[in-house]
Design a protein that fits this description.
The protein has 2 domains: 156 residues, D-Maltodextrin-Binding Protein, domain 2 (3-Layer(aba) Sandwich); 107 residues, Periplasmic binding protein-like II (D-Maltodextrin-Binding Protein, domain 2). The protein is built from 11 helices and 11 strands. It is globular. The chain is of the alpha/beta class.
Length: 312
């Protein structure tokens, strides 16, 4: 994929300065992730752990989906665990930064921001039984739009999700500029729906001419009969990107972090609500990952968009 530099607005809580890990964190090992504080007095070991899933869709959809996993997490850690229904990426990042969120799934695009601004330490993501993982960014339109190719977006409105989303904003912004010379406002009218399901429903109801979305979300909505295949036409499909990253706040006590990781890797998906929901994408297990390796392509896209990870 060819990427070039372009000035793109970042999320409200982040400035456009040089990318760097926030000064409150230390990366002593050089793996680009904040290490556990050296001072044991700074380690957190709360009696109740707060878990949040990335707000790609209505949080109410996922509170029940995660219930069996959270019960398993309670058993493995000996802690109470509560589901935290976050409404947007910025609120999720701020919750971890302030110490109110201990375990989370951050979407692909907001993971670098969470790592650098909130001390997020990712260690796993979902994958298929064969270890394969990922999703694609697609630009979709409705059949009556008259849009047959990416070039036809000129003069039309295009829905993004949020400025921290990889597939919902950052990747399509870089691709549209680098590969097609299309810039927001100058060539098409951008809109922000707030979430992938909002963008998908907006195209289905013809509120938007087109939208940039994660096809994993579209696939799950199709499987639940929320929308129908005949309501959409895809005009672009990207390379495969990593899915949401799961991890902990960096300052949790090391023994607790180990128990949390063990809970992810020992969870039996068979017959669970997690399997029912995410099996629609072919996902069936949690696999180990490193931010340094698996998010390299996302950091490249952020670099092309001049995105900063510094906190304001």
């Amino acid at each position: 994929m060819k990427l070039v530099k372009t000035a793109v607005a970042t999320a409200l809580m982040f400035s456009a300065a040089v990318s760097a890990m926030d000064a409150r964190y230390q990366d002593r090992t050089g793996n680009l992730v904040a290490d556990v504080p050296q001072n044991e007095a700074e380690w957190a070991n709360p009696s109740t752990l707060i878990f949040a899933y990335t707000p790609v869709e209505d949080p109410a959809v996922y509170a029940d989906v995660w219930s069996e996993f959270l019960a398993h997490l309670e058993k493995e850690t000996g802690k109470n665990v509560r589901f935290f229904p976050v409404q947007n990426n910025a609120a999720q990042i701020e919750a971890m930064r302030s110490g109110r969120l201990h375990i989370a799934a951050f979407n692909t695009g907001s993971t670098p921001l969470a790592v650098n601004c909130a001390g997020f330490a990712p260690f796993t993501m979902m994958a298929g039984k064969d270890g394969s993982f990922g999703y694609e960014m697609e630009i979709i339109t409705h059949p009556d739009s008259g849009i047959k190719a990416v070039e036809d977006l000129k003069g039309r409105n295009l829905a993004f999700t949020s400025q921290t989303s990889n597939s919902g904003f950052k990747a399509p912004s870089a691709i549209l500029n680098a590969e097609y010379g299309l810039k927001p406002d100058a060539d098409f009218k951008p809109a922000f729906s707030g979430a992938h399901d909002n963008s998908i429903l907006g195209v289905a109801h013809k509120d938007y001419d087109a939208a940039a979305i994660a096809n994993s979300v579209l696939n799950r909505m199709l499987a639940r009969d929320v929308v129908k295949p005949e309501q959409f036409t895809s005009i672009y499909k990207s390379q495969t990107f990593p899915t949401s990253a799961y991890g902990t706040a960096h300052n949790l006590a090391p023994e607790l972090q180990e128990k949390i990781q063990q809970a992810f890797f020992t969870f039996n998906w068979e017959g669970t609500k997690l399997e029912e929901e995410f099996g629609r994408n072919g996902e069936a297990q949690f696999i180990p990952i490193t931010y340094q390796e698996h998010w390299e392509v996302i950091r490249t896209i952020d670099n092309a968009n001049n995105v900063s990870y510094t906190c304001s």
